[in-house]
Design goal:
Length: 576
């Protein structure tokens, strides 16, 4: 909740104005029944038209004042609420942008989306209600009771029983509902997760005929959400009949006891009408107060979830003594006794790796699936930090570089090419904001995608659908390679990014890359790609089994020979 106060700070003036306006509404609301009683007793009972007009005009004036105050209050309350939402969303976005991969593993995308949308909305609801009715409800209860006692204390005694009864009841309901709302938000996370997986994997689901299975999964998550929402809403709804019952009983009591008091000349008809009016307003204020506390319980559950993200410790930061002047010039890489373990695992996925890569050298990394190739890649731009050992770029530990500079000098093409909604030009420029048209076209030509783009009706302006749905796998791969090349990187890392390319296109691509004069690491499953590298790293189970040129490895490594055999046959090995 302290975050709420912090983010509301710039809007304190607006909040104070909203509260002053709300107090104006409240004062009018408390005065109206009093004047109504006066009008009845001094005007209607005595049939004095002038007095009726007098009190009537005052009441109309006050009603207009209250109406205007209500409208302006809503305006200020909405302003504070929306500004607050904007600021928190912005802060959350910046925080998530700064997250390391480890942080991202802790907060699934679906849960972050719920926090960005639903949780912020819950807090906004709480703030809006707070500004409209927070002080108003309790003050109306207190003021209503006091005014009723001023009008006629004997009849007003009924309030001493009904008010504590209703408040006690509502407090119990709110406590229970608060816990349930936390659970509702968790279930909403689940629904969002299933929905997100389904939307992004819809083609796969259709291809595998998994519609029924996925529908059942969604029904499961959706039913849980419905059940918890139903439980919490039911709890709230039980408060309404109880409230109405107590209210009606107290009205009956006021009428019954009031009539006795009037016939005994201890009260006037106007007093009874005024007190009935106060009783109605006090009951309404208590129910309003109930809704408000409910909104606050909901807001608290959501605020906790937002502050968890804002408070999350980002483990991958630049150390205080980071050498800001270090620059990557040559692009040499060295791994020194590197071991790495994902935070969620018990065992290392890379163990004791040591090797050096000379500037501008071209290395092919080959190895079974799960042998740690991608993990090795991720350590160079510090997507994760090593568990043990050191990774050096240009002779300096990667942790001693400014993170932005280090990453700027690396062109990384991940295994699954990810493109963003926007034009092809925008997607390539995504690699380097300042890239001019010539740079973009050159990168596309080198990535062997220029001709394809040219043949599209809108060329570089062709819009790419979400995640590049309207491009083929190989086209997506090449656009993401162009995106990496446009940065003119010192180190280029292709993680199985040429898998969908035919041999001819791939070899042209590799030739073009050679002209970039950058250190190149290529994870590949294809021997034809590996053969052209200066050296091949053969990985198995997180270790570097062998290093050498293709012809050397054919002689020294049984595993390498087997891989070659599996792709070219026994005969093919000798031809290569
Ligand atoms: N984010 C993660 N959290 C936990 N374990 C992971 C994570 N990513 C990968 N792993 C595990 O680390 C090991 C190495 O994975 P990695 O992706 O580096 O292999 P790879 O050689 O690139 O495989 P492939 O060729 O299939 O892409 C695997 O056992 C994998 O299960």
């Amino acid at each position: 909740m302290r975050y709420i106060a912090r983010y509301l700070k710039p809007y304190y003036i607006h909040m104070i104005i909203a509260w002053i306006l709300m107090l104006t509404e409240l004062t009018v609301e408390l005065l109206l029944p009093f004047f109504l009683g006066k009008m009845i007793d001094e005007g209607i009972q005595t049939q004095d038209l002038n007095t009726i007009i007098y009190w009537g005009s005052i009441m109309v004036g006050l009603a207009i004042l209250s109406f205007a105050a209500g409208i302006i209050n809503s305006f200020y309350s909405a302003h504070v609420t929306f500004k607050f939402g904007y600021d928190v969303r912005q802060k959350l976005f910046e925080k998530v942008q700064a997250f390391s991969f480890k942080n991202l593993n802790e907060y699934p995308t679906s849960s972050l989306i719920t926090r960005f949308t639903n949780d912020i909305r819950m807090i906004q609801n709480g703030i809006f209600m707070g500004l409209r009715i927070m002080l108003r409800a309790p003050l109306l209860v207190i003021g209503g009771v006091v005014m009723a006692f001023i009008v006629n204390w004997r009849i007003a005694l009924i309030f001493l029983i009904t008010v504590p009864l209703l408040i006690g009841f509502l407090l119990i309901v709110v406590r229970k509902a608060g816990k349930l709302f936390g659970k509702v938000q968790e279930r909403l996370d689940n629904v969002n997760r299933v929905m997100q997986e389904n939307l992004s994997g819809i083609r796969l689901i259709k291809a595998f005929l998994r519609k029924k299975h996925e529908t059942n999964r969604f029904i499961g998550a959706n039913s849980e959400l419905m059940n918890y929402t139903k439980k919490s809403l039911r709890l709230i709804e039980t408060s309404m009949p109880v409230l109405l019952f107590v209210m009606n009983m107290s009205l009956l009591f006021i009428l019954w006891y009031g009539s006795i008091e009037v016939s005994n000349d201890n009260a006037q008809v106007g007093d009874v009408v005024a007190i009935i009016n106060y009783a109605l307003r006090v009951s309404m204020a208590i129910s309003m107060f109930g809704f408000l506390t409910m909104a606050i319980a909901r807001m608290k559950a959501s605020a906790d979830r937002i502050s968890n993200v804002l408070d999350a410790e980002i483990d991958l930061t630049e150390s205080e003594d980071v050498q800001k002047q270090y620059r990557v010039n040559d692009g040499s890489i060295e791994f020194s006794n590197v071991s790495f373990r994902y935070p969620s695992l018990k065992e290392d996925v890379l163990s004791n790796l040591s090797f050096t890569v000379k500037p501008k050298e071209r290395i092919a990394i080959i190895g079974a699936t799960g042998s740690g190739k991608t993990s090795l890649f991720q350590l160079i731009p510090r997507l994760y930090d090593v568990t043990n050992g050191e990774v050096y770029v240009d002779g300096h530990d990667v942790r001693d570089y400014k993170l932005d500079h280090l990453r700027q000098t690396i062109g990384y093409v991940p295994q699954a090419p990810l493109l963003f909604t926007g034009s092809i030009r925008e997607n390539i420029r995504w690699g380097k904001n300042e890239a001019i048209e010539d740079d973009i076209v050159k990168a596309a030509k080198d990535a062997q995608i220029h001709d394809t783009i040219k043949d599209l009706q809108k060329g570089y302006d062709t819009k790419i659908g979400q995640k590049g749905v309207n491009l083929s796998g190989g086209q997506k791969q090449r656009v993401s390679i162009a995106r990496a090349l446009v940065r003119k990187p010192k180190i280029l890392m292709l993680d199985d990014s040429t898998s969908a390319l035919d041999l001819k296109t791939e070899s042209k691509l590799l030739e073009a890359i050679e002209r970039y004069e950058c250190t190149t690491l290529i994870v590949t499953q294809k021997i034809t790609t590996a053969m052209n590298a200066d050296r091949i790293f053969l990985m198995d189970d997180g270790q570097l089994l062998d290093v050498g040129r293709h012809d050397q490895l054919l002689k020294t490594s049984d595993l390498y020979r087997k891989i070659v055999e599996s792709q070219f046959g026994k005969e093919g090995v000798h031809e290569r």
